[in-house]
Amino acid sequence: SDDASVSDQEKMLILEGALFVGLLLAAVTAGQDSCNVADGDRWDCGFVGTTQASCEADGCCWKPALLTNSSSNLRDTPWCFYPSDVENPCNDIKWSADSPGFTQEYYDIMYNNYAANLNIDGSGAVVAAPDT
Known about the structure:
The protein is mainly alpha-helical.
């Protein structure tokens, strides 16, 4: 072979490099697509003190909310949020019930505790936790 030709080994290296770059770009693009969530549709993935590094390490998206003319209140917009391909578990909450969720015995105990704290020793004082 002459010096101008590319060896089979060099061709394989070029193909492997191209494949790697293609897979890397696909992964980055897929991640960006799932992080393209409107401010009002974001749900928190972080907590107070979460950094971009810790957010992304948890598999979440990091995107600071920017104040624009169309969004004047960003107080409730999370910067660290779940990607769009993660289902929000709050969507499955049953918001209606056919009972109060506790027994009559429990209700009676709580009501008696409540009533006992309304007028401590006949003074008219109300306390959250009396000394007993």
